[in-house]
Amino acid sequence: MATVQPPQRFALANWGSFIWQTLSAPAQALWLLALASIGCLLMGLIPQIPLEMLRDPTLVDLWLVSIKSPWSGAIATLHSIGLTHLIHSRLFYIYCALVAVLLLLYLVRLLIPRWAHPLGELTTEQWRLSCSHSDTLDHLERSTALVGLRVLYRRLPHAPDANTTYIQGISRGGRRWGSVLLVFGLMSMLATGIFTSWNNPPGKVVAVLPGDTLPLPGKPGTQLQLIKLSVLGDNNQVTRLISDWTMTENQLTSHLSFLPGRPVLIGETGIYLLNYGPAVHLSASDSNNQILPLQPVLGASTPQDTLRLRFDRDQQEQLVALQDSSILLRLIHYPSLPAQGITGRALHIQVLRSNTGDLLQQAYLDRSGSLIIQDIKVNIAFDYYVMVQVQNEPWLWLVILGGLVTLIGLICSLFLPKRELWLALTPSPSGTWCQVWVARSDSQASWMQTWRAMIHEVADVQP
Amino acid sequence: MFSLELGVLCSLSLAAVIVLASGTLYSHPRFGAYCHWLRIASALIASAGLVWQAITDQSSLYGRWGGASAVVGFGLVWALCIWPNPNKRVTGAASVLAALLLIAGWLPAASGWPRVFLGGWFWLAQIATAMGVSFWCYAACMLIDPKQEPFKPIVNWALLLQIVGIFALAIGAQRTWGRALSWDPVECWWLFAAAMSALALCGGRQQNWRNRLVAPLGLVPALLGWFGSWFIIQALHLASLYLAGA
Predict the structure, then answer these.
(1) What angle do CA A334, A338, A340 make, to 5 degrees?
(2) pTM of the complete model
(3) A300: how many CB neighbours lie within 10 A of its CB?
């Protein structure tokens, strides 16, 4: 009995089949994962330009000059080949497209199984079953079903022997659909991620002080107002930040409480409390209790009865002019000022004569207080501001769904691995010759040994 | 009523007592058969202590001795669980070694990480738990004969934990900063570790790499991600670019 040969891999007639099998083979995952590993490693080693800077060539040049790393000498070269903005480079988009195409092909392969000589390492066995051809088929069907496989009969147009019956055993239930779910979940996450990155850029981050209102994009009738900020904990280590807001929608007012890490969803709009920083409220009055308007020297702002100022990493100093007086206030914020015995936040206030710049008076405050300057009283209240991001997230549910499906598929794929075997049955006067192909990793698996033992009951020849 | 650390310590101690008791009962004609289940129970108790720690501790497992003790204790109990089997003593020794490495890893991490988490968030903290336990698994796989039964499920669990950790990180980042993935260096190191683990598992399944490469491919990036990434990021001045504003 000659060994039954499956269709040749490199025959011209099967070039299409070969390409299909190659592209849709699960082994492609190795290349994709290797590329992903290299990409992640590079991004963990080479500084990456933030997206908001990448859009401005001037900022990019500044970034390239300012970068401090062992690669700084070669940073221009790395930038020219796209390694400083890998995630926004064409290489990444090509990679994503490659992943999407190969996932799609693999999904088709999973959903429409066909008898094809599998690529990769295989073991081949040959048996002769002395019972009739129909009994052989019946026995094989039952044995294959008992190890959890579904039997599919295949016609092969290029088969070398017309009498040969080709059978494929494929997994059922979680063993089959686990891989499908995994691929489907990955595809949906990838597609949603790419789509939203093009069509739904991240929302702007805005600084909000108590009393400020925050309009919601796409919701003209709705606005949020920050009422109060509470920072609980000691001065050096914040333990909890709570912000109380009111939301006005169609003349209805409701109270909301935002916390970092716990975003609030209003329809499809997510509101994120990102960070906080120090701020002060300033007001001034003369000896007749007449309010004196205040105005920051820098920036185009109007005089206000109560001035709210914030300090951040880039600006720890503010200069304020008192209307109808020749006084300037210079406010310098310190996270801590040990030289003055202040361990927490401190405000250094210098009172300057506006025309000469002479220092008239100075004070250090570690809490809210007031300052008497000649006959003017300046009230200073310590407060905080918060950085808030408002963004539209219509597709978030799809990403979450894709993640869940991926996780379920992964668990099924890991703990219920796919089983597959290929059979070619050729009748002969001395019985039916059965040739079996199975993946090498499955050849000694318990299910394959069970299947083999069942076939052995009726087989009389083994190679 | 109890402090958090005390509660975790109690659960781990209880688990250790169960393991030791099951060891002494191992040769008992009547109770010997139940030893296996006692060890599983002890592992579950230790895991419950770890999960409790992770849920109730608002700060990250990084930089907290309570959290560190939970993960280290989990590994030690796990080592005790497999210790009575004479074929796996080396695995137990590897687990103890990994516990010591884990303790060493906490010292530098203690100074840098709490600031990143801004008060700490449950989901973000889970990446530490998942990675910590996953490299226990890989450490054990380094010394188990790949043909033995526990190898394959342990590698599966290691990868699953890493992927679950990445998902938890993404959920935490989305809830905290509005972006599931910012591609900052820390995230990239975790992703690198998970991608290498997936590569090792795929290679093992499809190309029979199991004997040579699977455990090292999973373990080395996980160790790099855990112990090395912070040093590397600081040495390359990447921390100032991404983490200072957090």
Answers:
(1) 90
(2) 0.78
(3) 5
Instruction: Give the ipTM.
Output: 0.81
Of A40, A45, A260, the CB nearest to B191: A40
- Determine, for residues A47 and B192 on separate chains, whether the beta-carbon distance falls below 8 Å: no
Q: What is the spatial distance between Cα B21 and Cα B32, in angstroms, rounded to a whole number?
A: 11
Q: How far is A57 from A453, CA to CA, in rounded Å?
A: 70
How many Å apart are CA B168 and CA B122, to the nearest integer? 9
- Tokens 């204790």, located at residue: B73
- C-alpha to C-alpha distance for B125 and B134, rounded to whole angstroms: 15
Q: Which of B174, B155, B161 is nearest to B127 (CA)?
A: B161
Per-residue tokens: B37: 């289940």
Query: Which DSSP symbol is given to B224?
Result: I
Q: Which residue has the higher pLDDT, B92 or A122?
A: A122
Q: Name which of A276, A360, A348, A278 is nearest A319 in CA terms.
A: A348
Residues in A touching B146 (Cβ below 8 Å): none
CA neighbor of B170 nearest in space, from A258, A399, A198, A40 = A399
Residues contacting residue A77 through CB under 8 Å, at least 6 positions apart: none
Q: Which residue of B has its CA nearest to A35?
A: B195
Retrieve residue A340's tokens.
Answer: 């003055």
Q: Is A255 helix (H, G, I), strand (E, B) or coil?
A: strand
All residues of chain A having their beta carbon less than 8 Å from the beta carbon of residue B185 are: 43-44
Q: How far is B102 from chain A (nearest CA, A)?
A: 22
- In chain A, what residues touch B192 (CB-CB under 8 Å)? 37, 40-41, 44
User: Which chain A residue has the Cα nearest residue B186?
Assistant: A44
Q: Which of B118, B137, B213 to mutate to test the interface with A (most CBs of A within 10 A)?
A: B118
With a CB cutoff of 8 Å and minimum separation 6, the contacts of A440 are A120, A121, A122, A123, B208
- Mean pLDDT, consecutive 10-residue segments, chain A of 463 residues? 47 67 84 93 86 82 80 82 86 90 90 65 80 82 89 70 80 86 93 82 84 82 86 60 85 83 82 87 87 83 86 84 86 88 88 86 89 87 90 88 94 88 83 84 85 80 53
Q: In what order do the strands lie in the sheet with A317-322?
A: A294-296, A317-322, A327-334, A346-353, A359-365
